[in-house]
Amino acid sequence: MDLLHPTLPTPLSSPTFRVGDVPVYGDAILAPMDGFSDWPFRSLCSALGSAMSYTEFVRAEFIVGAFEHLLPRFKYEQGERPVVFQIYGDDPGLLLKAASMVQELSPDIIDINLGCPAKTVANRGAGVGLMRTPSKVAQIFHDLSNALKVPVTGKIRLGWEDNRSYMLIARIIEENGGAAIAFHARTKEQGYGGQADWDAIAEVKASVKIPVIGNGDVKSAADIERMKNYTGCEAVMIGRAAVGNPWIFSRLDRAQVPPERVHQMVRQHLERNLAFYGPRKGLILFRKHAMQYLKLQHLPRATRTQIILQDNADGFLSLLDEAYAVLGEPAAQEIRQVT
Prior knowledge:
By secondary structure, the chain is α/β, with parallel strands linked by helices. It folds into 2 domains: 17-252, TIM Barrel, CATH 3.20.20; 258-338, Non-ribosomal Peptide Synthetase Peptidyl Carrier Protein, Chain A, CATH 1.10.1200. Helix content is 45%, strand content 14%. Strands 3, 4, 5, 6, 7, 8, 9, 10 and 11 form a 9-stranded parallel sheet that branches. Strands 1-2 form a two-stranded antiparallel sheet. It has helices at 39-47, 60-70, 92-103, 119-122, 134-147, 166-175, 198-207, 221-231, 259-277, 279-295, 301-308, 313-338, and strands at residues 17-19, 22-24, 28-30, 53-54, 58-59, 83-88, 109-114, 152-159, 181-187, 212-215, 235-238.
């Protein structure tokens, strides 16, 4: 692959795996991340090769009580399919009602979050809090898989340090109609730190017949194959490593992406943010992405800070263009020497 002009992955002629009757073409998937996996970022990752498009999670009570206000969270384009709507909650009845409502927006799959470790979620019995109540998990998956027209999946963790219930929960999901499991192999207490337990992913994969998507410590393109080979999982879910490097879904590490490609992506991502959220909110919400895009560039810290703190898009883009003009040909020559 020409690293100055990386191409998109070649479309596969046959599915890598299926979730229920939904074919999935590919084995690298953007993780649903609250505050990051919104439509602008999801759509860009999808175009670069993310094989499934998971929305940020949405609370079941909010869907039932304020559905119209939440519609932007479920935005997608046809080219992103298969599209997965992720919802969360601790009440089986409310989850069923919410899932039935969002099903009318024609997702391919509905996913139940059993993995969020945030105290505001887990301590009220939702997210990874559900993993402490196996009977409730069974009821949720039984009711939703029987009532809905689309496959129902679950995203789980190891559980809690005092109750690593991942094997039990995985079997319950499968036995009650779940069509796939995404497995972040960390405990609630680990959050997003420490080492992910790939042995646990392999253990779950060996114990269920439905697809397993591994998640945790995939930091480079090589880690995608490494996790698949180590665990046997059908696909790999990538979270933080994709922020600032959506090219990982094209099997490129950030060091392999030339500055002009980063420049182009920053502009495109910002344009989508502005169109989706509006000028002010779009720029503010884009800053966290801009920090990641720019931090590995050959730009002085003061220059990066000046760009990121601009309070209007025109100023941001003007300074961005000036900075990349300074990078210019020397940075391209450096990449050619490396390759």
